[in-house]
Amino acid sequence: MGSPSAFLRTLIVAALAAVLAFAPAHAQQVVTITTTVTTWTYDEGDDAGADTIDEDAALLDDEALADDAEFAATRRYAPAATLTTLGHAKARFGPFSVIDASTVRMAGDVTSASPRQFAAMLAAFPGLRRLEMVDCPGSLDEEANLILARAIRRQGMETVVPAGGSIRSGAVELWLAGVTRRAAPDAEFGVHSWADEYGREANDYPANDPVHAEYLGYYREMGMDGAKARAFYALTNATPFDDVRYLTRDDMARFVTLD
To answer: Which pLDDT tens digit goes with each residue over 156-165?
Structure first.
């Protein structure tokens, strides 16, 4: 049998173990609940705008938002002007604002959600034929940008840069997708080199690298011949990704037909 002091130490240890065992049951737990409220706005007198709210919300899913965050690190320009520049809209789908049965205006970046938003817009307003590009900084997702461009072409849309309008980077590719193209005398077209996720730009790749074929093929698909496609591609890549070169309406007319 152990000594009294050893027995006392055993009792103390047992008591401490009991306290620790019951401590979680008596500990106060603090739970913080954060509530996020999303407000969708539309013209109260316009049923078409109301009909598109739920559909538009569904398009902005978690996957799309995650993709946009990933591309934000390599975004080309600051966000465009707010939608107040678009005037009275019947309905809005991401950067697109439907003005009437045939006209939609665009302001803002192309994101991974943009092709789905465009498709939803056409489902609701199948007669849209005119895309006015008011203030379009470019794209956060190059793949989505080309998907959207080809959807514009399939719809047979006219692309227009109105007076005071500015389109840059990937938005220039969207404008090229128009079956017919128009631009005001003061319209501006900002171009520069593309860059991949590693920060490498077009001129960092050999001239015969297959990476160039996608862009050259797209320009030819949109109506440029081989020589003009190569010349335009070289022009854009002559300006570094972090800079911009502004072209005029007349500059663009060297490469594609304007109406």
So the answer is: 999 999 999 9
Task: Encode the chain in three state secondary structure.
Answer: CCCHHHHHHHHHHHHHHHHHHHHHHHCCCCCCCCCCCCCCCCCCCCHHHHHHHHHHHHHCCHHHHHHHHHHHCCCCCCCCCCHHHHCCCCEEECCEEECCCCEEEEECCECCCHHHHHHHHHHHCCCCCEEEEEEECCECCHHHHHHHHHHHHHCCCEEEECCCCEEECHHHHHHHCCCEEEECCCCEEEECCCECCCCCEHHHCCCCCCHHHHHHHHHHHCCCCHHHHHHHHHHHHCCCCCCCEEECHHHHHCCCCCC
> For the chain, which domains are there?
44-253 (3.90.226.10)
pTM assigned to the model: 0.69
Single-letter residue type at 222: M
